[in-house]
Specification:
53% helix, single chain, mainly alpha
C-alpha cells in the first residue's frame, strides 16, 4: 500500500509551497512540485502549528469552520465532509470559538492537527496516534 503524499513529504497537512516562505527543515531541492517537503515530520508539524496560529491570530479564524475554509478551499476540497470529520474527531462544534494557541491549550490544538491530518492523509486512529511523538516535538520547538 502506497503511503499518503503528506506522510512521504513529512507534511501531513499538505502545506503548499510558497516562494515567500522557507520553513525550518524545508528541503530546498524537494521533488514534489506542489507541496513542501520537510526533513522530519516534527518540522512539518511545526510549520502546521505556526500556520494555524497565524490563521487564528492574524486572520481571525477562530472556529473549525473558518480554519478549514481557509486551509482547504472549496475549489479543491469537499469542505463540508472535511469539517464534519474534524468536528467528529475533535468533539468541537464547527462554529464554536476555539481557544488561542498557548501552552495550556495544547490538547485542543493537538486534536485539531491530528484530525486534519486524518482528513489530509486518510489516517485511522493508529495513524493519527503515530504522529503524536512528532507533534510533541513540534510543540516543544514553539513553546520551550
Amino acid at each position: 500500500m502506497k503511503q499518503a503524499r503528506g506522510l512521504r513529504n513529512n507534511n501531513p497537512l499538505n502545506i503548499i509551497k510558497s516562494e515567500n516562505i522557507n520553513w525550518k527543515g524545508q528541503l530546498c531541492n524537494g521533488t514534489d512540485p506542489t507541496f513542501v517537503q520537510f526533513d522530519t515530520m516534527a518540522h512539518g508539524l511545526r510549520a502546521t502549528l505556526m500556520l494555524l496560529r497565524t490563521y487564528y491570530n492574524k486572520h481571525a479564524c477562530t472556529t473549525l469552520r473558518m480554519i478549514i475554509l481557509r486551509w482547504a478551499p472549496e475549489t479543491e476540497n469537499q469542505v463540508a465532509a472535511y469539517i464534519h470529520t474534524v468536528c467528529k474527531l475533535t468533539g468541537w462544534n464547527a462554529d464554536s470559538h476555539l481557544p488561542p494557541m498557548k501552552k495550556e491549550t495544547k490538547v485542543v490544538w493537538f486534536g485539531i492537527v491530528l484530525a486534519m491530518a486524518s482528513v489530509e492523509c486518510g489516517l485511522n486512529n493508529v495513524g493519527r496516534q503515530s504522529l503524536r511523538p512528532d507533534l510533541e516535538k513540534a510543540w516543544d520547538m514553539l513553546y520551550r
